[in-house]
Backbone:
């Protein structure tokens, strides 16, 4: 015969601890025994981790109900037709400190619009543009923290037409034609790239010379020349074909990048930097945001 105990309560000898009162019914499959803190035991079901996936077509403020009781919130949105803003909940909102929030672009933005994520005080936290750009956030040290992100910002442009340079002149190039423009980094009025945030530029600038010309590319960052392909030429100064200069540079927000050509021609006639074609003079710039 199997021995068994029949009792309603469990209590430590001496009564130093509150007696534990057993449940009055059997558990169902996979339930566990929980204590209410006053000694009453009951059966409870394990709550599985939950997620919440939303799609928004306009501005949206994340509310308590989106994060409370949820381990992850994913919001898909885009700026294909207008600027869009997703506002994070306050860090004191129930569930905010235990919920990972991801905002993702589900369609390409135009070169004019952006998808912005801001905190409750309207401070910008992240901005995205193209499909699959995303930001992933948690609350840490009392503030929203970016733990991972991708934001596509780049410009690729070709010199619209040929530009004349006088002997030994160093001239900023103007009038570019779009090939690609993502993320509003090109200032068309002033013919320069402008860093939208603190980050890193990856730049390539190509200058094509006419036959008998002598030109080299130079990149200026924040008004100062950072790199030049070739400072001087031979006796005549001839350089044929396309000359390239590449630069990776860390910059502060709003720093400008300008593209110059320098003539190494020592003879007394005016020369042309060749434009009017994406295989002639042009540049590519890709920007990576840093936090």
Residues:
């Amino acid at each position: 015969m199997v021995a068994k105990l029949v009792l309603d309560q469990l209590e430590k000898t001496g009564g130093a601890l509150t007696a534990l009162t057993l449940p009055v019914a059997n558990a169902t499959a996979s339930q566990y025994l929980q204590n209410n803190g006053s000694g009453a035991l009951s059966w409870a079901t394990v709550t599985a981790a939950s997620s919440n996936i939303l799609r928004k077509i306009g501005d949206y403020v994340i509310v308590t109900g989106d994060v409370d009781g949820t381990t992850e919130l994913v919001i898909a949105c885009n700026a294909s037709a207008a600027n869009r803003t997703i506002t994070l909940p306050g860090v004191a909102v129930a569930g905010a400190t235990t919920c990972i929030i991801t905002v993702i672009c589900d369609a390409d933005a135009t070169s004019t619009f952006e998808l912005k994520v801001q905190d409750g005080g309207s401070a910008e936290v992240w901005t995205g543009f193209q499909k699959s750009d995303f930001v992933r956030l948690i609350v840490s040290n009392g503030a929203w923290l970016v733990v991972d992100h991708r934001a596509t910002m780049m410009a690729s442009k070709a010199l619209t037409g040929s530009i004349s340079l006088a002997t030994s002149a160093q001239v900023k190039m103007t009038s570019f034609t779009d090939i690609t423009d993502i993320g509003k980094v090109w200032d068309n009025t002033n013919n320069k790239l402008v860093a939208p945030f603190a980050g890193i530029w990856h730049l390539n600038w190509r200058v094509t010379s006419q036959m008998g010309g002598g030109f080299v590319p130079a990149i200026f960052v924040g008004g100062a020349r950072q790199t030049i392909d070739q400072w001087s030429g031979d006796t005549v100064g001839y350089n044929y074909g396309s000359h390239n200069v590449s630069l990776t540079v860390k910059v502060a927000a709003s720093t400008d990048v300008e593209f110059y050509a320098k003539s190494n021609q020592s003879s007394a006639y005016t020369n042309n930097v060749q434009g009017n074609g994406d295989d002639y003079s042009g540049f590519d710039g890709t920007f990576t945001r840093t936090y």
